[in-house]
Amino acid sequence: MSQPPQPRNRLAEVVAGLREFYAGPYRQTFARAQQDEDDLFLVIVLAEALGVPNPASYYTVELLPVVYDQFHDWHRRMGMDRSPLDHFSCC
Q1: What is the pTM of this model?
Q2: Is Hydrolase found in the keyword set (predicted)?
Q3: What is the DSSP track for 5-69?
Q4: Which label site among 45, 61, 64, 82 has the fewest CB atoms less than 10 Å from its CB?
């Protein structure tokens, strides 16, 4: 004898279905917007290294170790075969 579905499980299924219904068709658009936002954040953090004066470099220098892992993918996405930074070569 099967037990009836729990209300909490049923509610989670409805929420997942609604999320898929509303966000599913725009998933690629959301992913592209997130990628653009991440690229902008990376440029802001690396601004001083790229030669752009950055008044917030005191704060962004602490984030450099975090974005170094993403740097190679970023410069390849921007169409640069090699790293644009003289002091940092990732490939």
Answers
A1: 0.66
A2: yes
A3: PPHHHHHHHHHHHHHHHHHGGGHHHHHHHHHHHHHHHHHHHTTTTTT---TTHHHHGGGHHHHHH
A4: 82
Helix, strand, coil share (%) of the chain residues, nearest 5: 65, 0, 35
30: tokens are 């959301």
CA dist 19 and 28 (Å) reads 14
Dihedral angle sign, alpha carbons of residues 70, 58, 43, 53? negative
Task: Give the position of tokens 């008044």.
Answer: 55
Q: What sign results for the dihedral spanned by CA atoms 33, 39, 45, 51?
A: negative
pLDDT bin (cut points 50, 70, 90) of residue 5 is low
